[in-house]
Specification:
Blueprint lengths: L2 H56 L3 H12 L4 E8 L4 E6 L10 H6 L6 E8 L2 E10 L1 H52 L13 H36 L9 H13 L7 E8 L2 H8 L1 H20 L5 E4 L4 E7 L3 H21 L10 E8 L5 H17 L4 E5 L6 H16 L4 E9 L5 E11 L5 E2 L5 H6 L3 H18 L6 E4 L2 H4 L4 H10 L7 E6 H6 L1 H13 L3 E7 L9 H4 L3 E4 L11 H16 L4 E3 L5 H10 L3 E3 L7 E2 L2
Parallel strand pairs: 8-9, 11-13, 13-14, 14-15, 15-16, 16-17, 17-18
Antiparallel strand pairs: 1-2, 1-4, 3-4, 5-7, 5-8, 6-7, 10-11, 10-18, 10-19, 11-12
């Protein structure tokens, strides 16, 4: 019960106690008054009858006595009137049963017991005692009058109490409003939201509490901001090239390896390898400051190109070499963007007067790869291409490593993929997320497959690009969610299933309504998680916050995949507050040998823990990694060390 309701209940209890005492006192007082009234009434009646009937009693005229007594008795206020001679021989007795009106409750009669007064007087005639008259008033009259008074009191009490409760409730709400705001502050603070109460109450105690809370929230906010800034500075030092603001060599190699070597859903890609010719002589000719500005502008042009492609990787491998990896390219786009880069770079070199006669100042090698290329292979091909371009004095060279496929074969495969998605002919596998403390399964992340024309499972890398080109990613995500729910309904499992969805799906028409309808029709509370990668979350924080709140209201978990590598940092965690994060596998590849990686990983885990967000490590391959991650406080791990993906049956 809330404090407000407790106060109102306490006030109401006091009012009930007061009115109960008041009613008791009033009833007792009224009872005494009524008894006095009945006694006086009996005495008056007996006196008047004695004066009037003295001759009849002296003569023992029973008929006359009866006539007079009945005239009085019929008024209804009497239970008994008895007339006797001096020897107490009965001359006439009028008697009525001591009935009480049915309007008076029996419990009230038992509660208020009346001892009805019985008044007896001597009757004299001609200075001689001739008899006695006894008058007893009817108790029902007293009960009826007392019950009417009690009813009126109760009605007024209830009416006034309701009015008082409404008034007190409003008054107490007004007085205690700062406490409600403090409660909201505390709740928001637990979610790492910082709310300060602007209107300070006048009540001394509440004013002190509100000001203390505001001061604490300011300090906590500052503390978390400083913590985030320190970790961001560490990330920049460890993974960002100071001059170009791009990923440095170590970070670039790690991201390329993670994307090309460890994931199976990236599909074809193209690598732009930029080489600035004779950088040392360029430094001598232009001076260090101008040469640095030239390199920064070269890097900026490459970054702008990368920003146009979701999921791209851009970084600096060495002083004179930069790379850009973009997913799902086509040859025309690669050719067009290569020409655009060359034109832009010629303008930059011309501005700094860095163009030498008969000498190419910059070389660009583009490598189009198939689905199976590794990071080491694509970089090796690019470096060979750079040497070839330098020896031939050529500004650009294109190399293709893609498998040759006829147009008819490509069209047939595209049609087959479209048919499979539309018909929901999917095949699901899963990879387990294992608790680092007790080796139990925390969740199962679903991996989507389709069966190719030969009936064999086909990994996402073979068809995901086509799905995105055809605009079927929303249909694919919905189908996977339906399969997951169907599996949960038909199998008893304690581990939730996890489904990854794309940013496009989040913005598809009526997705929220469809998801709620699908969830409501099935009892899957706590058995399903939905994940999005960090880049998608950062590109659409407001929409993701709304979506996460929707999932929470339905008992569905929300996680952030590939956490920790986006250059925008992780301050979005305070707004989104996911149910868990999966730290990108590239950050733990060298965790055994690199102290900076360990420190940065530990800092990410600390931030997550401070927000009560469990942190999981992705693509873990060695037991040594698990040991280091345990020391840093990781909650769970996922990767091939726990086995190959298994079929969801």
């Amino acid at each position: 019960m809330s404090l407000l309701n407790q106060i109102i209940a306490a006030v109401f209890a006091v009012l009930i106690g007061l009115v109960s005492g008041t009613i008791y006192i009033m009833s007792d007082s009224s009872k005494s008054m009524l008894l006095n009234q009945l006694e006086s009434h009996s005495e008056d009646t007996a006196t008047h009858l004695g004066l009037y009937m003295a001759p009849f009693i002296a003569e023992e005229d029973s008929a006359g006595i009866e006539t007079v007594v009945n005239a009085i008795f019929d008024s209804g206020y009497y239970e008994k009137i008895s007339v006797t001679n001096f020897d107490e021989e009965d001359l006439f007795t009028a008697l009525r049963s001591p009935e009480i009106s049915e309007e008076v409750p029996r419990w009230f009669v038992k509660l208020i017991a009346f001892d009805t007064p019985n008044f007896k007087i001597e009757v004299t005639h001609s200075w001689a005692k001739v008899g006695f008259i006894t008058v007893k008033s009817r108790a029902g009259y007293a009960y009826e009058e007392l019950w009417k008074g009690t009813q009126t009191t109760l009605i007024w009490f209830i009416s006034l109490s309701l009015i008082c409760v409404v008034f007190l409730s409003s008054l107490i709400r007004l007085i205690l409003r700062p406490l409600k705001l403090i409660e909201e502050q505390a709740t928001a603070l637990s979610n790492r939201e910082y709310i300060e109460v602007k209107k300070i109450p006048k009540t001394k105690e509440l004013r002190s509490v509100v000001m203390t809370m505001n001061s604490m929230i300011q300090r906590v906010h500052t503390m978390f901001d400083e913590q985030s800034k320190n970790i961001e500075d560490l990330r920049r030092t460890a993974y960002i090239d100071e001059l170009t603001e791009l990923a440095n060599s170590r970070a670039t190699h790690a991201q390329l390896s993670d994307k090309l070597d460890n994931r199976d859903d990236e599909g074809p890609c193209a690598l732009f390898y930029i080489h600035i010719a004779k950088l040392s002589s360029l430094n001598e000719r232009l001076g260090e400051e101008n040469a640095s500005n030239l390199i920064k502008q070269v890097a900026q042009k490459l970054k702008l190109l990368g920003d146009e492609h979701t999921g791209s990787i851009v970084g600096r491998l060495s002083g004179s070499d930069l790379v850009l990896l973009i997913p799902h390219p086509d040859n025309e786009a690669v050719t067009r963007e290569t020409k655009s880069l060359l034109d832009a770079y010629n303008e930059i070199f011309n501005f700094y007067d860095a163009l030498s006669e008969n000498e190419v100042p910059i070389n660009i090698v583009t490598v189009s790869s198939n689905e199976d290329i590794s990071a080491a292979q694509i970089l090796s091909v690019a470096r060979v291409g750079i040497e070839e371009a330098i020896s031939n004095n050529s500004p650009s060279i294109h190399k293709s490593l893609s498998d040759t496929q006829s147009e008819s074969e490509a069209a047939d495969w595209k049609a087959y993929v479209a048919e499979s998605i539309n018909a929901k002919k999917l095949f699901l596998q899963y990879q387990e997320v294992i608790d680092a403390s007790n080796d139990t399964v925390i969740q199962k992340e679903l991996l989507v497959r389709i069966l190719n024309q030969e009936g064999e499972p086909c990994p996402a890398v073979k068809f995901i690009r086509i799905v995105k080109e055809l605009g079927l990613i929303d249909a694919l995500d919905r189908a996977v969610i339906e399969y997951a729910i169907e599996h949960l309904n038909s199998h008893s499992t304690s581990e939730p299933l996890t489904v990854n969805i794309s940013q496009n799906t989040l913005h598809s028409e009526n997705f929220d309504q469809w998801l709620i309808k699908t969830i409501d029709a099935n009892g899957i509370n706590g058995k399903l998680n939905i994940e999005m990668n960090e880049s998608s979350v950062l590109n659409d924080v407001t929409r993701v916050v709304e979506f996460k709140q929707l999932l929470s209201s339905q008992g569905i978990g929300f996680g952030v995949d590939n956490f920790g590598i986006h250059p925008s940092g992780f301050s979005y965690l305070y707004k989104v507050h996911p149910d868990y994060i999966k730290i990108d596998g590239s950050l733990s590849q060298q965790i055994n040998s690199n102290a900076e990686d360990r420190f940065f990983m530990g800092s990410l885990i600390t931030v997550a823990n401070s927000l009560s967000i469990p942190s999981y490590a992705e693509r873990v391959e060695h037991s040594e990694q698990i040991e280091q991650l345990k020391k840093l406080g990781i909650i769970a791990t996922q990767g091939f060390i726990h086995g190959q993906p298994k079929n969801l049956r």
